[in-house]
Amino acid sequence: MIKSLIFIILMISFTGCTLIPKIETRNILKTDNIQTGISEDEKLVFKGDEWWKVYNDKTLDALIKLILSENSDLKIAWLNMEKSTEAINLVKSQEGFHLDFTGNFKRERITKNGIEPPPLGGKIYNMSSLGLQSSYNVDIFNKFKSLSEEQRYKSEAIKINSKWIELNIAERTTKLYIYWKYLQEEEGNLREQREILTRIKNLYSESINIGTGIEENYLTIKNNLRVLDSIIAENKMNQDITINNLNLLSGNKKIEEIKNLLTTDEKNMEESFEGKIKIPQSINSDVVVERPDIKYYLMLIEAQKEHLKSAKADFYPQFTINGGIGLQSLNLNTLLEKNSLLGFIGPSLYLPIFHQGSIRSNYKIAGIDLNIFIEEYNKAVINAYNEIGNEIYTVKTLENSLLNSDINILNEEKILNENKKRLNIGTISEYNYLLDRYNFMNKDLLNKQEHFKFYIQQLDFIKAVGGVYKK
After folding, report:
1. Which helix (DSSP H) or strand (DSSP E) does residue 384 occupy?
2. Best exposed site among 163, 336, 391, 435 by fewest CB in 10 Å?
3. pTM as predicted
């Protein structure tokens, strides 16, 4: 009898196995190194965590630490991480040994042919029971183990996603911080331009009074002063908006702290960001794979593989060992007597004979979802390679352009210094020198804008690779 039962179970298991549809899994895109074509011999190391510390700027460090502690998106990510941990515990609780305490009491009128309601007669019984019931799921085909592993990979994906959120928040904070520094330098430049232009206006006013000046030129100078006043007002507006955006990142909970950090910062833009970021000669494929958004999809793929395993286990029989011990009686008064003690233990078998259609569909859906995650991963990898390549090309182009701009501004400064010497010895007028100085301040502001664009582009490169390179 036992041999026959075992044979039947094995046959059903084999039949279930033959009914499992074949899943064609898509290929995962292989990653290669990215060559930048840069002839640098420096040995560079990649740093992903706390990449902003490469700038060695205490104000930036404090600003990012403050914002990360209060950012709403990051708080939601932390809550999702906590939720995912509990989800793992929930899945684990479904496997293994279960123990339940049960008890009930029923009062029924029973006749010879069954239960009849009054007033048809019959005898009244007080049926009661009290005891412990247990069960143990024998995970022969690793269904519960696969579900647990699936949830573990999903939990890892959520943790990785929080790193991606942190990267984005830190990058946005750093961009706003750079913009703030630029606005300070722009304001200083604009106010100096206004001071120079005011002196030019006064000198030109005198020339008009003695009949050597032209009225149209004087009006043009006054128009330029009004334009400068508008630009200075716009600069002030942009400063306020920048502070508001930083406050928004911190959930408007650290307004005074952010204001104090910015107003007490003494470093200029070049001191904080000049020469801090290195562009490597080649980018290892591991860096691309470890980028948070790429690694996120990898974890989802691994999770779906485990889900597919658990769905495959549904084709096979499920074994459970059940047991119980307790008290049962037809009279409440005799429930606690020795003769009321009962117990049992034995196996139970679930055969998925009449659910093959739904099980097959569920398995196919799990396979399709796996291929969807693979294609999403492949798409993310292609986008990452394209993004990194574009950022490298752009940042190197801007670097070369900035180098030329710096050389030009140095030459312009030398010319201005020579003109100042000529002013001191009387070979040029103060009016002509002020015009030269005014034009130089315009060119200097354009140079500062080039520096600002370059530092912002470096941050786009950092976001593309998920970190920084340093010596």
Report:
1. helix 356-425
2. 336
3. 0.82
